[in-house]
């Protein structure tokens, strides 16, 4: 079971890093393209483009803070065998279920590892 936890830790570190990289690339792409598209717009509609770039930046930062950084922390916690990490990974895995197809696979694997880990522990009443 420890091997599965290590694999899960690596998966969460990699997926969190890819999310951060993706958000940086997406935010940079929008910040470069929006001014060019804004120049083609009518003068009455240019205020939308001035408002859109900061909004996209806030969304990108929000996604990184809510999903990517906790995923990296949970992955590092699993690699260091912290007790809290498996619970955080379970929460993040449930959120990843909606990210088809790779996130769904990671989410299902997370739930399986959590269930198998709890099944292996003796129950105290």
Describe this structure in words.
The longest helix is centred in the first third of the chain and has 39 residues, at 2-40. 20% of the residues are buried. The protein has one domain (2-117). 85% of the residues lie in helices and 0% in strands. It starts with a helix and ends in a 5-residue tail after the last helix. The mean pLDDT is 87. It is mainly alpha-helical and 125 residues long.
The topology string of helices and strands comes to HHHH
Total number of helices: 4
Helix content: over 70%
Oligomer: single chain
Structural class per helix/strand content? mainly alpha
Number of domains in the coordinates?
A: 1
In whole angstroms, the N-to-C terminal distance is 24 Å
Number of strands: 0
How would you describe the shape?
Answer: elongated
| Radius of gyration from the alpha-carbon trace, in angstroms | 20 Å
The overall pLDDT, averaged over residues, is 87
Strand content: under 5%
Low-confidence regions? none
Q: Profile the largest sheet.
A: none
Annotation keywords:
elongated, single chain, mainly alpha, 4 helices
Question: Short description, anyone?
Answer:
The protein is mostly helical and 125 residues long. The chain has helices spanning 2-40, 46-79, 83-96, 102-120.
Topology:
Layout: H1 2-40, H2 46-79, H3 83-96, H4 102-120
Helix pairs in contact: 1-2, 1-4, 2-3, 3-4
């Amino acid at each position: 079971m420890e091997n599965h936890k290590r694999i899960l830790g690596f998966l969460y570190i990699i997926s969190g890093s890819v999310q951060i990289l993706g958000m940086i690339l997406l935010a940079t792409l929008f910040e470069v393209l929006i001014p060019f598209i804004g120049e083609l717009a009518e003068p009455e509609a240019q205020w939308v483009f001035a408002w859109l770039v900061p909004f996209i930046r806030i969304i990108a930062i929000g996604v990184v803070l809510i999903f990517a950084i906790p995923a990296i922390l949970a992955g590092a916690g699993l690699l260091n065998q912290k007790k809290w990490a498996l619970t955080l990974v379970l929460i993040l895995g449930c959120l990843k279920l909606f990210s088809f197809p790779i996130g769904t696979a990671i989410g299902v694997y997370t739930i399986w590892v959590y269930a198998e880990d709890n099944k292996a522990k003796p129950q105290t009443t």
